[in-house]
Amino acid sequence: MPEKRSETRELLITRVFDAPRALVFETWSKPEHLVHWWGPAGFTLPTHQMEFRPGGAIRFCMRSPEGHDHWMVGAYREIVQASRIVFVSSIDDDPSHQVTTTVMFTDEGGKTKVTVQQLFTFESDATRGAEKGWASSLDRLLKLLAQLTAASAATKEAER
Amino acid sequence: MTPALRPERLDATFAALADPTRRAILARLATGEASVSELASPFEMSQPAISKHLKVLENAGLISRSRDAQWRPCRLEAAPMKDAVAWLEHYRHFWEQSFDRLDHYLRRLQTPNVSTTNAPKKAKSHARKKK
Questions:
Q1: What's the domain range around A44?
Q2: I need a labelling partner for A12 at 20 to 30 A (CA). Which of A83, A95, B44, B115 fits?
Q3: Cβ atoms < 10 Å from Cβ of B55
């Protein structure tokens, strides 16, 4: 029997903010800041509990503009003042789909670069047969998928 | 938040795409249908080894095989890949939009003489003049 283990995938997103690093970090560390920016446009955080310390709990209710509530529940794993935050979370009470988010804050010519790295972990029967330790940039995978779907569509067009 | 997708299916898609041989098979099938021997020819692999990869792709719904024709050609199925793309785009969208809002919020925090209830004191001392 193959051992049950999980596969991870990674997503990397960066943005440079025109603000000092200490301030940018602060906007991630207090709920009174997070309510102003967390989530896509139109989302609100009617419930937000965050114990900003390693091991501290996170419990957000993210409400979509249509009024749908989505719960993000997790815990902080690592906090390094003004430079690094690591937390794990799952959405809508789905423990089979865990996300580990690492946020890094670095100086970039008087501005602050924020790098969000997300590792997705799936645990299910389907992953048991998968290759060990595979991790790839989701951006690369995204490009491949786009190429494949485009090529497939072009072929179908040509067949007509 | 997350698109209405079954995680098992998404999982199967990513697991199937994890292998370079299977990705190469998909790339070949993107140009049109092919038989097992046609798919096996570019690889130094036996047909049974290729068949094993095809089984994984078929179980993930990424390819289908004709039951009628004797040579049972394989064909690419785009739907699961479109789902995977949508799922990835959803996460990217979450961060891009949050960052847009954070950018706006940081500007507000650093604007002098604007009373922001939540503005930390250090925001003002750090506020820089625009060149």
A1: 7-135
A2: A95
A3: 12
